[in-house]
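Subject: Protein record for review, amino acid sequence with backbone structure tokens
Category: Structural biology, sequence-to-fold work with a learned token vocabulary.
Format: Residues in single-letter code; tokens as whole numbers, each standing for a residue.
Body of memo: The sequence and its backbone structure tokens, given next.
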Amino acid sequence: MNADQSALPDSDPLGLFAAWFAEARESEPNDANAMALATATPAGVPSVRMVLLKDYGDEGFTFYTNAQSRKGAEILANPRAALLFHWKSLRRQIRIEGPLSEVPASMADEYFRSRAFVSQVGSAASDQSRPLDSRATYVARVEELEEAYTKAGKVPRPPHWTGFTLDPEAIEFWLDRPGRLHDRRRFTRTEGGGWASTLLYP
């Protein structure tokens, strides 16, 4: 072990994310783009769930959801969140924190059209996070809409189905090391839009 040198570079966290994400796509057996999304109510009551990253770049990290779901309601009331990627096959984690903004309607429309027909219908049929008396009720609604939209030729995007982009203010990388002497580096945005970084004790 080299005690004097970190394996984590001290600049360009977005570039490092892209490199790690590309490796995860090659090594993870399922859903390398799965990430834990933590939100909270205005009173600070937290909740977390897994969602899928659909796009990332200089503007941030984008995912899509039902804005009338629990997470959607929390985002609209308290538009800040934290993300966590955990790639078990690579023994790596990335934590990302920052404010959220809703994507333009045109962007949500474009992504919704790219989804499989059954996924579009499932989204239209779901009152996400609300009580459901039985799975049969949901399946029947899906089948009814599937028939209607097959005849119509397309599924309109529900107005409450949208996307959000997290603008990263902090990104932290965690790399497994033997003996639990792990490597951690945290990047934070500077006033000029650049990044400052520091190693953290594991």
Q: What stands out?
A: The beta strands are 34-40, 46-52, 55-57, 60-66, 80-87, 92-102, 161-166, 170-175, 183-189, 195-200. The chain has a mean pLDDT of 93.
